[in-house]
Amino acid sequence: MDQDLCPLGPHVSPKRRRLALYARFHPDKNIRSPEVAHFLRHLLRHILGPMVLLWDRGQIHRARCIQRLLDRHPRLHPYPFPGYAPELNPDEFVWTQLKHSVANSIPADSHHLKRLLHPAVQRLRRSQRLLWSCIHGSELPWP
Q1: How many CB atoms lie within 10 A of CB 72?
Q2: Between 110-126 and 90-101, two packed helices, what is the crossing angle to 10 degrees?
Q3: CA distance 116 to 139
Q4: Which residues pair with 9 in a beta bridge?
Q5: pTM above 0.85?
Q6: Which residues pair with 22 in a beta bridge?
Q7: Which of 53, 79, 124, 137 has its CB 3.0 to 4.6 Å from that of 93, i.e. a possible disulfide?
Q8: Which domains does the chain have, with CATH numbers?
Q9: Sequence-separated (6 or more) residues with CB below 8 Å from residue 38
């Protein structure tokens, strides 16, 4: 499974300490900055208050359209990771959960893969324990 299938991320509610998982799947192999901008606008509509974006230093996150979106929405706060540090990224643990769910599958196409991943995403969304394990599995200093 290609990690570029979708931007994923656990979201932590600062007041309730409750996690949510937002995912958007794309049929293309690589996600470009317009898809990231669309996903961020989706999050802005559904999440109130400030958001910290945990990002690698990939070119997609430094694109001009993304920078303009960040400038227009001051409640988005990007937090950059070092150059290559998957051990700091909670998304890596989300992907581990999703990959495990499709380990012995042979999807016919990206739509079939999405159908295979959907139950695993739903299972993660419903389980605070699993979502927190993705957060705590990373080596970021979480409160």
Answers
A1: 9
A2: 120
A3: 29
A4: 22
A5: no
A6: 9
A7: 137
A8: 3-137 (3.30.420.10)
A9: 24
Query: What percent of the chain has a predicted confidence (pLDDT) above 70?
Result: 84
Structure tokens at 70: 């960040």
Amino acid identity, position 114: K
Contact at 8 Å (CB) between 36 and 60? yes
SS3 at position 51: strand
Compute CA distances 57 → 19, 66, 78, whole Å: 24, 13, 10
pLDDT, tens only, 22-55: 888 777 668 889 989 999 999 999 888 888 887 8
The DSSP symbol for 105 reads -
**Six-digit token string for 55:** 């990002």
pLDDT digits (tens, 9 = 90+) for 75-104: 998 888 776 777 888 888 888 888 988 888
Retrieve residue 104's tokens: 């012995």
Question: 71 with 65: CB under 8 angstroms?
Answer: no
Other Cβ atoms within 10 Å of 103 Cβ, number: 7
74 CA to centre of own chain: 20
**Amino acid at residue number 120:** A
**Residue with token string 């937002």:** 22
